[in-house]
Amino acid sequence: MSDYFHVRDIHKDFSGMKVLTGVDFKVRKNERHAVIGPNGAGKTTLFNIMSGDLKPSSGIILYKGKDVSGKPPHILNRSGLSRSFQITNVFQQLSVFDNILSGVRSRYGLRYHFFKRPDRDHHLIEKVEALVAEVGLTDVKDQPASSLSYGQQRALEIGVTLSTEPELILLDEPTAGMTHEETVQAIKLIDKVTSGRTLIIIEHDMDVVFSLADTISVLYHGTILVSDSPEKVSNDNRVKDAYLGEG
Amino acid sequence: MKKQGNIFICMSGLILAGALMPVILSQYHLYILTEIIIFSLFAVSYNLLLGYAGLLSFGHALFFGLSGFATALAIIHFPGLTLLSTVLIGLAASIIAGFVIGALLLRHKGSYFALLTLAFSALFYAVAVKWYSVTGGDNGLNIVRPDLNLGFASISVSGLAHFYYLTLIVVGATIIFCWYFTQTAMGKTVLLMRDNEKRMQFLGYNTNFARLILFTFTGALAGLAGSFYALHFEFVSHMAVSINMTTVVLLMTFVGGTKKFWGPILGVFVYIIFQNYLSDLTDRWALIMGFIFVFMVLFVPGGLSEVIVKIQQRLFGKRNDNGVKYIASEEGNL
């Protein structure tokens, strides 16, 4: 299963500016894989390519043996891949419950039905309730997303990401802007909800990375410097140089 | 849930009142009421695009008029057809047009979408004016309503009361379905796409597909209204596909308000009644309607429905804590 998710030689130029210059790494099934790197290394671009938001200039992404590079987001989502957003990107007007419902009903094929009402479907309601409880938002499930605290909004972001029951989860800096306290909670939550699933996480916070990841890939100047276990990565001289400045 | 119950009581009341109208109203007023019901469907379909999906179309009359012409042409060229078949022909024409035009437009939003719909509308208008042998050009087409054949019985709807009942049942039921539609999976999808299309894509929704379906659906609704328009006036001309007709439905929708489902219906009532009384008083009625529209846009952008909701809130107090506020904003689209 070493080829569960394989990013192979991905390049990306933005009108001449080379952001990614050959990114290569593999993610095994049920692995928790972190992509780290200093600012400007191309993490967000890479993330957007993996999630279908951008097309790579060249290179392919193999997911379950198929090339999925450049596939539109909704197709990727239906094949079991789901992403979160760094800046909370939920339906602000909607309650927590309805936010989660929007993904759950998509997962069960209730997207465009002209007659069925998703809020009357007991099977879906049960699924939503369970997920709301899993991300710890049961107390506020009827409140609009806009009224939640920052930590709760981030939990909802993860909840919405999980709502289509993905097997591969892509998290984009899930603890960005959090206090230490909130970060600890977020790590616990991510640890809990991603068990039995594959996780690719892009993160700045080293505490988060070292407490979650099985494998770390270091992205530096548009290419992967090293992809290995946390211990080996933290002792790697190239990585130290990259983070401490080129000496 | 209680609110839902109230809605059903309201609707039953409306249906009962509707059934009694031919007894209460004069022929003239019944004629206007029939027109109001038909335009209500037109305006509701327009608001599904404008208020719900956030798509400003300047070509909605295209479907209305196309279907009116198709129905009229079917009556003229195939004299044996029953009334419902001619309506279905009109509906089919608007569905096909909606699907084809929608497929060409679906990647465009905002002003591009608005301008492209305007272009298509102008195209259809030019055809309606120039293709004299088919559309009658400036003279339009005069028709006579065929009988309604229900299989076991043939009913004449040449009388106004009969046609009123037919309109009330068919068009009224369609409007009720439109309300129900806003509660269904597709109705919710449309709303959520307006709020956050990107997230919807990452949740597995093909938003281009959904927009195409919605565009076709609203085109079909406008088409149904257009068929009944042709049957009601027993006449159809290029006016029905003109920019003017789109402006009329836009005005009706704005006057009533886009944020409530019933807003456009209220707008139609006000518009048509005003128009009838004003045109009795002066030939310059369109100018006055224009002033009213400018006034509404400047000072009451939420339309009459917003005014009513505000009065209601003032009288009965605000029922808004956080939880209810959300329901209000969701059913705010009611």
Outline:
The complex is a heterodimer of chains A (247) and B (334). Chain A is an alpha/beta fold and 247 residues long.
Task: Tag the structure with descriptive keywords.
heterodimer; A: 247 residues; alpha/beta; six-stranded mixed β-sheet; 9 helices; 35% helix; B: 334 residues; mainly alpha; ABC transporter involved in vitamin B12 uptake, BtuC; two-stranded antiparallel sheet; two-stranded antiparallel ribbon; 4 strands; 76% helix; 2% strand
Shape designation of chain B: globular
Largest interface, Cβ cutoff 8 Å: A-B, 40 and 30 residues
Termini separation of chain A comes to: 39 Å
Strand content of chain B: under 5%
Radius of gyration of chain B: 20 Å
Number of strands of chain B: 4
Tally of helical segments of chain A:
9
Alpha-beta content class of chain A? alpha/beta
CATH fold type of chain B: ABC transporter involved in vitamin B12 uptake, BtuC
- Beta-strand portion of chain A reads 15-25%
| Strand element count of chain A | 10
Tell me the series of helices and strands of chain A, N- to C-terminal.
EEEHEEHEHHHEHEHEEHH
Biggest sheet, spatial arrangement of strands of chain B:
1-4
